[in-house]
């Protein structure tokens, strides 16, 4: 008789699901991160009430308590005009707190993903800004966000800074929602036409974040993670005025009865609509580095707006 071949029993050891901690859970991007990161592990999404970035002691305590494998900082002080007179708080949340997160991430060996903004640039460049262009913020908000970038990247944590612009979504306040509301309430609108950027869906920012975390952290080697600054916006560019017209066009196509006629949406210059904080005239961000490094295709900004508009319309008050 042939001899029986020896057999062995192999016991598989399951790898514990990673813990991903999200700050700013009630913000536009934070809200979407709860969805996009869920397949990757245990997501702990904290709002300001449970994780206030202005309270450094609480912030350190929260990070040490949960000991996450990944920290995604979607919290920020975003009141651009108010920051001009409330700069101390803006810098505490946008500048100091990200540095603390970097320190805690380094101690844990965790990945830190932090979001920044087109406002770190002065907007005077003719072409889209690249990651190697020198920042020159022209507002307190922009300076506070640049301080946060510097704190994160000068730390020892494995860290990624994603700069984005003109974020919108179905959750929270944003330009698209405002234009939809005003278009229903007013018979005339005046919208700035000499500032340009790429309206970027919060869902796109969250989905790209999840893709990067999954590909280069959860399933890859942390030591090989290609950190640094990356620009993340939808493809293409438009002005605030043209953006408003597209919002109204889509709303009308979805059956919304608008009070304003598109012909009465007046294009104006920045100087015709003065605000406490200066805005960059050019907010276009080049995204080739992100696409090249992570193999990501970024859809046109119109695609994201088309996807979000039905939900924004459904949220309109019923008459």
TrEMBL record:
CDD domains: dTDP_HR_like_SDR_e (cd05254). Keywords: NADP, Oxidoreductase. Pathway: Carbohydrate biosynthesis; dTDP-L-rhamnose biosynthesis. It catalyses: dTDP-beta-L-rhamnose + NADP(+) = dTDP-4-dehydro-beta-L-rhamnose + NADPH + H(+). Binds 1 Mg(2+) ion per monomer. GO terms for molecular function: dTDP-4-dehydrorhamnose reductase activity. Its cofactor is Mg(2+). GO terms for biological process: dTDP-rhamnose biosynthetic process. SUPFAM superfamilies: NAD(P)-binding Rossmann-fold domains. This is dTDP-4-dehydrorhamnose reductase. It comes from Cupriavidus plantarum.
């Amino acid at each position: 008789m042939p001899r029986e071949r020896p057999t062995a029993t192999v016991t598989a050891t399951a790898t514990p699901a990673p813990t991903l901690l999200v700050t700013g859970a009630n913000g536009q991007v934070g809200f979407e991160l709860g969805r996009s990161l869920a397949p990757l592990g245990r997501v702990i999404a904290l709002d300001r009430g449970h994780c206030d970035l202005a309270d450094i002691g609480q912030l350190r305590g929260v990070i040490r308590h949960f000991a996450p494998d990944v920290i995604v900082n979607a919290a920020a002080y975003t009141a651009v005009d108010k920051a001009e007179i409330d700069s101390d708080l803006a810098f505490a949340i946008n500048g100091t707190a990200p540095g603390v997160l970097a320190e805690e991430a380094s101690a844990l060996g965790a990945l830190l993903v932090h979001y920044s903004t087109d406002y770190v640039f002065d907007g005077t460049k003719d072409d889209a800004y690249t990651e190697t262009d020198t920042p020159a913020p022209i507002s307190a908000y922009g300076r506070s966000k640049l301080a946060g970038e510097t704190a994160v990247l000068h730390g020892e944590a494995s860290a990624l800074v994603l700069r984005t612009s003109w974020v919108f979504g179905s959750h929270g306040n944003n330009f698209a929602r405002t234009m939809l509301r005003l278009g229903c309430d007013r018979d005339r609108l005046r919208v700035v036409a000499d500032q340009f950027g790429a309206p970027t869906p919060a869902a796109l920012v969250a989905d790209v974040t999840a893709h990067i975390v999954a590909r280069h952290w959860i399933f890859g080697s942390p030591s090989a993670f290609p950190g640094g600054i990356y620009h993340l916006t939808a493809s293409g560019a438009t002005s605030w005025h043209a953006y408003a017209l597209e919002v109204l066009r889509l709303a009308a196509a979805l059956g919304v009865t608008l009070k304003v006629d598109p012909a009465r949406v007046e294009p104006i210059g920045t100087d015709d609509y003065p605000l406490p904080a200066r805005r960059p005239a050019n907010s276009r961000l080049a995204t080739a580095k992100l696409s090249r490094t992570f193999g990501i295709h970024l859809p046109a900004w119109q695609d994201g707006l088309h996807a979000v508009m039905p939900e924004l319309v459904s949220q309109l008050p019923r008459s």
